């Protein structure tokens, strides 16, 4: 949802303000509840961001939109108009360094772009409003105009590839952006001063019903031995193996689906045991492996969850795929496996792999969808879950800080979509 506000155009740029308060003039978003943890704050807090000229303000009830595999939460709230106003939702995959973009060619592919004319409203059948939109219209007045985007089911989740220590510019990965702007038509050049851009995320949470316990086993016969070597491994209970030396590794697999599919694997947790096992004996041992991003900060290309500014991130969640999904437009598909390898002297290695799912549990407030269907009368954000008759909505403004020598966008081309970067803390 966006709001029209009066503002003056300062051509010399001296009074331009940085709305996220981080001195970088990128206008990205920050935590509203002031606790620095990047969450959405209290149930009545609202994500809001104005344009530089204060002509346009966008309101969002949340930043993370959940992919439930069979359906995705819609995006949208409200904004206020000056003339013609459009809202764009873009899902993009940046697959190359920004400093390599030359001659107008960018290492970036738009996977999905949708445009909506918010004002004047198109002569179509009016869509039903969410509870949050109804409350905002009542609060902001007649110059507030709602918008709603439906995210297709086949789009990837937000993923960032960890850059190397010497990499600069925007990180590679998949990101989503909502952009509201004032123009005569949707093809017109967009200027920073009369536009608002917000990075959102498409996320998945762990399914309520877990799959079967991962188990794997293998047997190898040796030429000079009358008995075979048998390896059996399982997750969540125990590792029962017969070996000379064991190495257990958690590996992350990232399938990059672009023009061709390429797979990158990266170990994120490793434990090695030097226990020696005598012939004709059995040895059982439990290994505890905990994959942490803190132990993998220097690994270039490691897949991470999409990052918003002023938030830390973590290892990317496993990707849950719908049956029959088209992998060509999924961007980055993340999966995890535990590899157990036995090192046998003069006999080669024996190994098994156990795939598993690494995801965040579903938050308690994510009880929006029941029985596999969307309840259109239920809340779409935590704010909507509040009493619809309670108009005490908290509009928390961004920290403002005057910039000296800020450039006017007349002499500056529009920057590409901001992707989450790992070195922004």
Backbone shape:
elongated
Mean pLDDT score: 68
Proportion of strand residues: 25-35%
- What would the CATH topology of the largest domain be? Immunoglobulin-like
Radius of gyration: 25 Å
Task: State the share of residues found in helices, binned by percent.
Answer: under 10%
| Strand segment count | 25
Uncertain residue segments: 4-43, 237-245, 367-390, 396-425
Helix count? 1
- The appropriate CATH architecture of the largest domain is Sandwich
Structural class: mainly beta
Distance between the termini: 28 Å
Biggest sheet character: 7 strands, mixed
N-to-C SSE string, H for helix and E for strand: EEEEEEEEHEEEEEEEEEEEEEEEEE
GO molecular function: G protein-coupled receptor binding
Protein name: Beta-arrestin-1
Keywords: Cell membrane, Cell projection, Coated pit, Cytoplasm, Cytoplasmic vesicle, Membrane, Nucleus, Phosphoprotein, Protein transport, Signal transduction inhibitor, Transcription, Transcription regulation, Transport, Ubl conjugation
Region (Disordered): 1-46, 405-425
């Amino acid at each position: 949802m966006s709001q029209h506000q009066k503002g003056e155009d300062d051509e010399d740029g001296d009074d331009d303000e940085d709305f996220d308060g981080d001195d970088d003039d990128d206008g990205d978003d920050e935590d509203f509840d002031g606790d620095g943890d990047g969450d959405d704050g209290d149930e009545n807090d609202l994500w809001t961001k104005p344009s530089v000229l204060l002509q346009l303000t966008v309101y969002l009830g949340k930043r993370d939109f959940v992919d439930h595999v069979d359906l995705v939460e819609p995006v949208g709230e409200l904004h206020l108009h000056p003339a013609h106003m459009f809202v764009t939702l873009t899902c993009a995959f940046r697959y190359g360094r920004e400093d390599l973009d030359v001659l107008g060619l960018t290492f970036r592919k738009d996977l999905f772009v949708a445009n909506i004319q918010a004002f004047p409203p198109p002569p179509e059948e009016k869509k039903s409003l969410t509870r949050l939109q109804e409350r905002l219209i009542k609060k902001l007045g007649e110059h507030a105009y709602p918008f709603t985007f439906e995210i297709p089911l086949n789009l990837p989740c937000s993923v960032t590839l960890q850059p190397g220590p010497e990499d600069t510019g925007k990180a590679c990965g998949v990101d989503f952006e909502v952009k509201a702007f004032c123009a005569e038509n949707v093809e017109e050049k967009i200027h920073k001063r009369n536009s608002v851009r917000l990075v959102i995320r498409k996320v998945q949470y762990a399914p309520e019903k877990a799959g079967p316990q991962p188990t794997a086993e293998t047997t190898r016969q040796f030429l000079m031995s009358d008995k075979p070597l048998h390896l059996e491994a399982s997750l969540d209970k125990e590792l029962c193996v017969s070996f000379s030396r064991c190495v257990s590794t958690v590996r992350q697999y990232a399938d990059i689906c672009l023009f061709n599919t390429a797979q990158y694997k990266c170990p994120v947790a490793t434990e090695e045991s030097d226990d020696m096992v005598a012939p004709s004996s059995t040895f059982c041992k439990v290994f505890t492996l905990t994959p942490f991003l803190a132990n993998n900060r220097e690994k270039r290309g490691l897949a991470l969850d999409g990052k918003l500014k002023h938030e830390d991130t973590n290892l990317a969640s496993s990707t849950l795929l719908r049956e029959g999904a088209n992998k060509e437009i999924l961007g980055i598909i993340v999966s995890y496996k535990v590899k157990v390898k036995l090192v046998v002297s003069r006999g080669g290695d024996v190994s098994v792999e156990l795939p598993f799912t690494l995801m965040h549990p579903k938050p308690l407030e994510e009880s929006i969808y029941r029985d596999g269907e969307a309840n259109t009368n239920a809340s779409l954000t935590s704010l909507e879950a509040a009493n619809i008759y309670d108009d005490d909505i908290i509009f928390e403004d961004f920290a403002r800080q005057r910039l000296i020598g800020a450039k006017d966008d007349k002499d500056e081309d529009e920057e590409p979509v901001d992707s989450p970067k790992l070195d922004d803390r």
